[in-house]
Design brief:
18% of the residues lie in helices and 11% in strands. It has 116 residues and is α+β, with helices and mostly antiparallel strands.
């Protein structure tokens, strides 16, 4: 047994989640990031993250399932449309993060003439 889960929650899951998964959880599937999804007999649903606990690592299909929007368990082998992009987790703080263009006062062009 990994003793880190007793004292720290940021490594994978808490000790309480470990016990809940062990005794009440039924494994239903996993996604491309390695996150594992479970369901109880009372239709309670939860995720055990593979590495860092980051909610944005849940794909859209699994997000819908875990929030009871759909009941069908998502299939990773289901072919997506060509216009659909691959899911990306939050990119904040990485080199891929969005950086807006800085607009200066000289860049703004007036659409009217000022009174003189």
């Amino acid at each position: 047994m990994n003793y880190k889960i007793i004292f720290t929650w940021w490594n994978n899951q808490t000790f309480g989640t470990f016990l809940k998964t062990l005794f009440f959880g039924k494994y239903v599937g996993s996604d491309e990031y390695g996150n594992k999804y479970y369901q109880s007999k009372t239709n309670e649903r939860w995720v055990v993250y593979s590495k860092n606990i980051e909610a944005t690592k849940i794909t859209a299909d699994w997000y819908l399932w875990i929030h009871h929007t759909i009941d069908k368990i998502p299939d990773n082998k289901l072919k997506k449309y060509t216009w659909q992009k691959k899911h990306l987790p939050n990119q904040t703080g990485s080199k891929n993060s969005f950086k807006p263009v800085k607009i200066t006062k000289n860049d703004i062009k007036k659409k009217y003439d000022s009174w003189k």
